[in-house]
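The records we work with from here on pair a chain with its fold. A complete example follows; check for yourself that the lines match position by position.
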Amino acid sequence: MNVSPDARWDNALALIRKNVTEQIYTTWFKPIVFENFDEARKMILVQVPSPFVYEYLEENFVDLLGKVLHHCFGTGVGLLYRVVTDKEHNISQDIEGEPAAGIEKPKARTGANQGPTILDAARPQQIDSQLNPHLTFANYIEGDSNKLPRSVGMSIAEHPNTMQFNPMFIYGPSGCGKTHLINAIGAKTKQLYPQKRVLYISARLFQVQYTNAVLQNKLNDFIGFYQTIDMLIVDDIQEWVSAVKTQETFFHIFNHLFRNGKRIILASDRPPIDLKGMPDRLLTRFSCGLIAELEKPNTQLCVDILESKVRRDGLKIPGDVVQYIAETASGSVRDLQGVINSLMAYSIVYNCDIDIRLAERVIKRAVKVDDEPLTIDDILDKVCVHFNVTPTQVNSKSRKQNYVRARQVSMYLAQKYTKMPASRIGKLVGNRDHSTVLHSCAQVEKRLLVDKQFSADVSSIETSFKLKKQ
């Protein structure tokens, strides 16, 4: 006598009930809804009410499920979860369960001569950590403004398996050294634990990857990849403030990594309480570890940073000039580096010594000391001057390399220094859509890591549009 799939599922639940407490059964197994059993594929489809239930079952009861389903449905069966991700709009996604005793997962088929991509989580392979090799603890100078975050960051890098201060949330104004510190933590961890899967990514690039994964119907692969990371470092998360779907996806990735003892390091220009537009459930997770503030460096730390750069680069800058720059500049590490670069450029071009008079001239033009916000036109003008193109050429449809470069840099700097959404920036720079802006910003960020000349160009532009308003 053939037993119906529904009856087999009922038998499976009865066996499970005998092997767990009543509270566990009621909490985790009773809400499961049996959908169907595909005998040809030997695949059982069940619906669970949330991603949290799916993850908890997979992490804690995969062996029990495997044995019970093997007993009730036969050998070689697989389990497919239909996970409800949006109850209001009745949106769900299907996720195949991990193989366990009694469940044999079929081998994945791959295209001929097609290697794994960064989003292929079937086999955790070595990945490019995307860390900047120049941003390490060795050149991250300690001072009063960064002593606590630096000490905790070093401790995390040396002992990444401990769960103290997880997640670490670092916030502070632009130019205070957030990106340097989080890169240094990742680099030190990778140095001490080469087998660890460490990944640094900007919030903007994460959003671009998420959008592409949705468009290519590879969202499960995207989530699966990030769930294999041992230390996930995300920079500038304030850029997710209005990205609801990105927030939801990161929420589930965060939960998975946190419950599995993986390290999460986040950086923002403001504390969690000021991230208006992010859901409370995400903000409470950001706040459950350590919230560390990075302040702008004081004069003494500015002097130490400048002297370190002078020694490291073999520059010849008198001590009184270093002191003057530290006292006069705005306290931004980027401003300090921009002033030094400008001094060297003037010295070489005009064949003159670096002295206080030259420093005064450079700082007067390079350091923005008032609070008047930059506009798109300000940024576009400086970019065009630097790359010797016109705004008309940048805003045109032309794909000439120098026009595209100026267009992408303009979008990147507009995202970085204005509060405009990507859609508005795209409208003002070439009448492009928001996806073009996100793609351009991602391209610039990637090139900054590998192209020294390009990085110097962008740094020079940033220095130039920080001119003091007359």
Q: What stands out?
A: The CA atoms of residues 63 and 100 lie 5 Å apart.
